[in-house]
Amino acid sequence: MTADLAARASARLAALAACSAPGPGVTRLPFTPAHRAALAELTAQREAAGLSVRLDAAGTLIGRCEGPPGAPVLLLGSHQDSVREGGAYDGIMGVVLPILALEVLRDAGVALPFAVEVLAFADEEGVRFPTALIGPRALAGTFDPAVLDMEDADGTRLGDALRGFGGDPGAIAGLARDPGAVLGYVETHIEQGPVLEAAGDPLGVVTAICGIERHPVTLTGETGHAGTLPMEMRRDALVGAAALVTEVDRLAGRRRACSARSARSTSPPARSTRCRARCGPRSSCARPRTQCARPPVSRSPPSHRRPQRRRGSRST
């Protein structure tokens, strides 16, 4: 039975991965044709599981399994959107698995003593608009209406995009849930890290989640002649940046924390990714600290010569 459930989950996730903008990986931004295609697929899955389906004012797709009259509700779910060229399981797995679990319970004749709602939030990644968590904030009663005026790269207002998708920006404030009527919220999510795999554990319970701070730092060096300025007198911005990155990494390791550094990177614009640099000694006193496994792109070795006097010249 476990293998059958895994195959069913895999097939459903593959169908949703196809709801993407063209290109590698999955690119599914909120309030786009790819988003609409994903909601159509999720609606079909939920209806097949016997759930009633609706789209709330914040663009969250909700599938509900009724419980006894007056019973509280357990919220399950995650986000449907992705980063650019993201993975097929990020977020969306936490939407698919609860549907499958409810199907299994229904087929087994299990009647739960509470209601269940499976939520597919529209925007968690904050890729299209410079804000995120619209749906969760609405349910928690912490939504800030000011974000509706934020625009994407094409100048489209968030409020307009939501309204055009079938949402109702003016009704978001009324989505706040009464904590006394909610049993809790459970989100199944791919780990996106190596800890469980390294430990050989199939499942873990999250007890803490990282907080994020981003600080722009500008390092300004001093310009000098490439061939005549000794190394110990140089003030290279990249060398200082390298020391800063190394120190952040050291402090994070000492605190058993996670850190991300970004440099001028190749696309897509991830936080911690690849960067390219060209380097080489430009002074006769330069001493490379490491050896490269690959030959340098170009080389002009320093020349050591004694000054020679020409016939008929005077030394000064």
Secondary-structure blueprint of this entry?
Layout: H1 2-17, H2 33-48, E1 52-55, E2 61-65, E3 73-79, H3 93-107, E4 115-121, H4 134-140, H5 158-164, E5 182-186, H6 195-199, H7 237-254
Parallel strand pairs: 3-4, 3-5
Antiparallel strand pairs: 1-2, 2-4
Helix pairs in contact: 1-2, 1-3, 2-3
Account of the protein in words:
This protein has 316 residues and is α/β, with parallel strands linked by helices. Helices cover 27% and strands 9% of the residues. It has a five-stranded mixed β-sheet with strand order 1-2-4-3-5, sandwiched between helices. A hairpin with a 5-residue loop joins strand 1 and strand 2 (61-65). Helix 1 (2-17) packs antiparallel against helix 2, helix 1 (2-17) crosses helix 3 and helix 2 packs parallel to helix 3. It starts with a helix and ends in a 62-residue tail after the last helix. The model is unreliable at 262-273, 282-293 and 312-316 (pLDDT under 50).
